[in-house]
Amino acid sequence: MDPEVSLLLQCPPGGLREEQVRAELSPDHDRRPLPGGDEAIAAIWESRLQAQPWLFDAPKFRLHSAILAPTGSQGPQLLLRLGLTSYRDFLGTNWASSASWLRQQGAADWGDKQAYLADPLGVGATLTTADNFLVFLRRSRQVAEAPGLVDVPGGHPEPQAVCPGDSPLHKDLPGELVVHELFSSVLQEICDEVQPDFRAGEEVLLEWGSRGPRVYQNHFCGDTGVKWQSVFCLDKELVLGFA
Fold this sequence. Notes:
5 helices; globular; GDP-mannose hydrolase activity
C-alpha cells in the first residue's frame, strides 16, 4: 500500500448499500481556522487565480471521520461525519507547501493531524471493461491538481446538488440526501466522462475506506458487460494495471 495511505475502515464482506450508510452534517466537523488566521489561504488562492484565472471556488463536503458499527448490529452500519469546506480551502491547505506543518500543528493543537486541512470528499472510479482493460483519462493541463497526468474518472459529490445556492448550510443538508449524493455522484462522473451504457437498477456497494488519497471504495458488477470499482477520495491518484 502507498505509504501516504492509511486504512480508515473496512466494511463487511459484500459491501454496504446506500440505506446502510448514514451521514451526520455539523459545523463541528469543519476545518479549524489556521493558527494566526486564514489569510494564507486567501493569498494562495489569489496567486493561483493569477496563474490560472479559469479556476473557480465551490463548496465541498469535508470528511471528519467515519464510524463502522460492530458486526451484527441492526440499522445503519456506517456513520460518516461530514462538515463543509471549499475548493479554495483545499488548495490552501492540503495542496499548500505548508501541508506537513499544518498536520503537525493540528496534532499538537487539537490532537488531530487533519484539524487544519480541508479534506474534501471526492469520488473516483476504476473502470474495467468486459475484456479486462482499465479505462484511464488524461487530465487537462489547465487544472490545479496534477495537470496533464493520467487519471481515473472522477470528481466530487456536490453540496449544491442537495441544496442549490452558493453557500449551503449544514442545517439545509439532510443526511439521507447527502448519502444519496455520495452514491449517485460516482455514477454521474463515470457517465459524464466515459459515457458507458449503464442500465437502470444497477447498484453501488460501499466496501472499504482509507485515510489518504483514497477514502471509500464502492464495488459494482452489472450485466451490461462493464464492471467497475469506484473510490471516494481526498485527491486523485494514478492506478495502472490490468483487471
